[in-house]
Amino acid sequence: MNSKPQKEHQWLQKLVGEWIYEGQPPVSLTGMQSVRSLGGLWFLCEGHSEIHGGGTLTIMTLGYDPVKKRYIGTFIGSMMPHMWIYEGELDSTGNKLTLNTEGPSFTAGADGAKYKDVIEFINDDHRVLSSNSLGDDGKWHNFMTAHYRRIK
Fold this sequence. Notes:
Mean pLDDT: 92
Protein name: DUF1579 domain-containing protein
Shape: globular
Radius of gyration: 15 Å
Largest sheet: 10 strands, antiparallel, barrel
Strand order of the largest sheet: 1-2-3-4-5-6-7-8-9-10
Helix content: under 10%
CATH superfamily: Calycin beta-barrel core domain
Number of strands: 10
Number of domains: 1
InterPro entries: DUF1579
CATH topology: Lipocalin
CATH architecture: Beta Barrel
CATH class: Mainly Beta
Number of helices: 1
Strand content: over 45%
Structural class: mainly beta
């Protein structure tokens, strides 16, 4: 199989580069992220951050599955043993990519929970990542927002 990048991969291409980021309450963090392309089909986002006074490493992979017609990916971090599996889509404006996933609940006693990460481009050099969890009330609750600014 020798696949060629689709138009949907072009959206992911905007992520390529070097970024610095800062998180806003309720989670305070700062860091750097390096994003590179793997053949124009996959995008590897490697992050290094300071959170809660300690260093963490994260790796996000993103791609597009033309059969499913969905964006797909994974997220792992040095601060947790769970691998998050993403599936999502762009909104009608073409500026926001919503990635849905499921994993361990952050609430004591709960078995699992639904989450979504939203990547929104404000412009070519500024993007925002917001992480949300689905509450027992059926509403999405933001638990982390980070602003990324391109440095190269």
